[in-house]
Amino acid sequence: MKTIYQRLDGIIPKITDKSFRENKGLGNEISYYIFDYEPKYELLVRDHIQFIKQKISDEYSNIHIKEFDLYEIILETMDKKGYLQKNIEMEKKKGSKYVFNAIRKSLRLTLKNDMVLDYIVNRVEPNDIVFITGVGKAWPIMRSHTVLNNLHNAIDQVPVVMFFPGEYDGLELILFNEIKDDNYYRAFQLIDKY
């Protein structure tokens, strides 16, 4: 089995390969990838993502990485709407579960005008590679399979890589290696574990 360092070192060669950027899988389907990892490596993975973005920026003028941290998008959107402080106060009074549901409704998650999806889609351009991060931080407000399904319907011109703190076996997403998400079978492993 490959170490986390071997897997992280495999990302740049993979994403700079022309066939990866052409964004077609074996059956000519859109290329969605998951880089799953043990949750204990979260900070290492975050640091390595920043390293990848800088290296690609410095060495490849034709490739652009757009990172979208789901948690940061939620905070930014809620702040712009003037709801962030209100939600903090509401959580003190009514609890986290109530606030999570209120946030989902105010962001219109999974609806046609899903504000997080719109945020991402409106910032993606040709030659981009989309990195989705902050999956663990955004839970339980957002679920990874929901994000992937919604993106799959909206972004089909550029590769999308979700960095997932948990396990993905090609069918099942298990956040933090404990919380089973719904099945998702349209993504490839970015870097194999073996």
Verbal overview:
It is a single chain. The protein is of the alpha/beta class. It has one domain. It is built from ten helices and seven strands. It has helices at residues 4-9, 11-16, 18-21, 42-59, 70-80, 84-94, 96-107, 115-121, 135-138, 144-154, and strands at residues 32-37, 64-69, 128-133, 160-168, 173-175, 179-180, 188-189. Strands 1, 2, 3, 4, 5, 6 and 7 form a seven-stranded mixed beta sheet that branches. A hairpin with a 4-residue loop joins strand 4 and strand 5. Helix 6 (84-94) runs antiparallel to helix 7 (96-107). The chain is globular, with a radius of gyration of 17 Å. The mean pLDDT is 91.
**How many domains, as an integer?**
1
Low-confidence stretches: none
- The span between the termini is 5 Å
| Largest sheet, strands/sense/barrel | 7 strands, mixed
Estimated helix fraction? 40-55%
Number of helices: 10
Based on CA inertia axes, which overall geometry fits?
globular
Tally of DSSP β-strands: 7
What percentage of amino acids are in beta strands?
15-25%
Structural class computed from helices and strand pairing: alpha/beta
Based on CA atoms alone, the radius of gyration comes out at 17 Å
Average of per-residue pLDDT values: 91
Order of helices and strands: HHHEHEHHHHEHHEEEE
Protein name: DUF1788 domain-containing protein
Organism: Clostridium ljungdahlii (strain ATCC 55383 / DSM 13528 / PETC)
InterPro entries: BrxB (IPR014858)
Pfam family, one: BrxB
